[in-house]
Write a structure and sequence with these properties.
alpha/beta; 8 helices
């Protein structure tokens, strides 16, 4: 309810406050490229057992999907079958103005939470609607704690950013968005039957490219592309995660190009 109230009040203010340049400035100021060195957020996974203790969080740049490149720094580490595995992600996150819509492409999925809050506070989309979540996983785990409503009332996004980085991880970022009123419900698309359901706007679209991972090949690749392109055309706001732990990043980048090039 707090976000809805804030949104309505902001609508009465001069449109300059919703200007794209101001919105991007508020985002780019936080994502400048840095390391997580403490056992928080995504870095908490198997931290004590891992040799690698640092995860890189890339900067955000304004550009196009052609600016997507595989990075050389580890963004996700985990012990899998008794073996430490370190995954490189994107060299940089990219904001794209796609068909006049805001679209963010990034690696680890928890960053979607920050982009949603920043966008909603800047009136890039209205709160209280539907999140269309296209993903191999539901990402509906419980966080250690929830962000207080008071943090949303702050003009600065520091508390939101700290929460995104330090508390949230790739599997628990959706319930906090629901708790804050960013969304009132989630439509989860992660099965062959779900891909055949009708998409009903308005909605914010959240895509995890791991839905194209090898284990999801039982759903026809062309069918997934077609339905996601349809959703992109309908969406009010779009986030895309490339999820290094779940899909090869070169494959992920290729799929993003397929999705956006055909929809340009």
């Amino acid at each position: 309810m707090l976000l809805i109230s804030m949104f309505r009040k902001a609508a009465c203010v001069h449109n300059q406050q919703a200007d794209l340049s101001m919105f991007l400035e508020s985002v780019l100021g936080f994502y400048h490229g840095f390391y997580l060195a403490e056992p928080v957020g995504n870095n908490a996974f198997s931290f004590e057992k891992r040799k690698n203790k640092r995860l890189y969080v890339p900067p955000v740049v304004e550009g196009s999907s052609s600016d997507l490149r595989l990075g050389s720094r580890v963004v996700f580490s985990e012990i899998d079958d008794g073996e430490e595995k370190n995954y490189c992600g994107l060299e940089q996150f990219v904001y794209v103005s796609h068909r006049g819509k805001d679209l963010f492409i990034f690696d680890n999925h928890n960053h979607a939470f920050f982009f949603w809050v920043a966008a909603c506070k800047s009136r890039r989309f209205a709160p209280g609607g539907t999140l269309l979540h296209i993903d191999q996983h539901s990402d509906m785990r419980e966080p250690d704690h929830y962000l207080s409503a008071a943090a949303l009332a702050e003009d600065d996004l520091t508390s939101v950013f700290d929460y995104t980085i330090s508390c949230l991880n790739v599997g628990n970022f959706i319930k906090p968005a629901l708790a804050l009123g960013l969304f009132s419900k989630v439509e989860f698309v992660g099965s062959s039957s779900a891909f055949e359901k009708e998409f009903r706007p308005p909605f914010v679209l959240d895509i995890d490219i791991d839905v194209f991972a090898p284990e999801m090949a039982y759903i026809d690749h062309a069918r997934k592309l077609a339905r996601i392109r349809e959703a992109i055309r309908m969406a009010d706001f779009i986030t895309i995660a490339t999820s290094p732990f779940f899909i090869d990043q070169n494959d992920a980048i290729r799929v993003v190009h397929e999705l956006l090039a055909a929809d340009s």
